[in-house]
Amino acid sequence: MPMNPKVRVLLVDDHGVVRQGMKLYLAADSSIEVVGEANNGQEALTQVEKLEPNVVIMDLLMPVMDGISAIREIKKRFPEVEIVAVTSVLEDKKVVDAVQAGAMGYLLKDTDAAALSEAIHAASRGEVRLHPEAAKRLMREVRTPEMRESLTPRETEILKLLAQGHSNKHIARETKVEERTVKAHVSSILAKLGLSSRTQAALFALKEGLVG
C-alpha cells in the first residue's frame, strides 16, 4: 500500500461538459484520482457505495435528486466521505443548507484548478474551504447560540484551532492529545453550542472573535 495514497474523487454534476472540465483540471494533480462520475444525487449515492471515494464534488441544482438532499443522504449513510459543493449558485439559503447538510466546502464553478485541487485535499483532511462570498453569507446567517453548558479551556482551545480550518489530526498534534480525544471534544463543543457541524462551530468562533 502506498505511503501517500491518492485522494479518490467522485464528480457529481448533471452537465457532462462541467465534469469533463473538472477532470482536466484535476488531471494535473497526481495525488488526486477521479474514480467516477454521476449525473444526479441519486446516482451519486449508488456510486459512493460502489466506488468508495474520499471526497465528492457535488453540484446543487440537478434533476432526480438535488445536491443538498444528496449531501444529507451521503453524510447519513457514509459519514466518512467528505463533500465539497461546487455550483453556480450563490444564494444565502443554498450556502447555509449545503453546510448544514454536511458539506466541508462551497466553491463556485469558475474556481480555478489550483483552488479546486486544494479544496479537495483540505476536505480529505477534514478541513473547511469556502468561497469568500459564501463565507460572508454564512457569517450573516450564524446566530449566536445560547450555550447549554460552558466550554472548558481545552474545548475553547480546540474550537479556536477548528476555526482556523485545522483537521482533527493537526489539532491533536497541536494540543498533544490523541486524535480520538479531539473528536470527543469536537462532539462536546457541538452539543454545548447546539450546532450540527464543525463548519458551523468554526463560523461561530469567527463571529465571536475567538480567532484573530
TrEMBL record:
A Gene Ontology BP annotation from the UniProt entry: phosphorelay signal transduction system
One Pfam family matching this protein: GerE
MF terms in GO: DNA binding
Matches recorded under SMART domains: HTH_LUXR, REC
Domain Response regulatory positions: 8-124
4-aspartylphosphate, modified sites: 59
Keywords: DNA-binding, Phosphoprotein
CDD domains to which the protein is assigned, alphabetical: LuxR_C_like (cd06170), REC_NarL-like (cd17535)
Keyword DNA-binding listed: yes
SUPFAM superfamilies per UniProt: C-terminal effector domain of the bipartite response regulators, CheY-like
Gene3D superfamilies, A to Z: 3.40.50.2300
UniProt keyword DNA-binding, yes or no: yes
Sequence ranges assigned to domain HTH luxR-type in this UniProt record: 144-209
InterPro entries per record: CheY-like_superfamily, NreC/VraR/RcsB-like_REC, Sig_transdc_resp-reg_C-effctor, Sig_transdc_resp-reg_receiver, Tscrpt_reg_LuxR_C, WalR-like
PANTHER family from the UniProt entry: TWO-COMPONENT RESPONSE REGULATOR (PTHR43214:SF43)
Protein name (database record): Two component transcriptional regulator, LuxR family
Native species: Allomeiothermus silvanus (strain ATCC 700542 / DSM 9946 / NBRC 106475 / NCIMB 13440 / VI-R2) (Thermus silvanus)
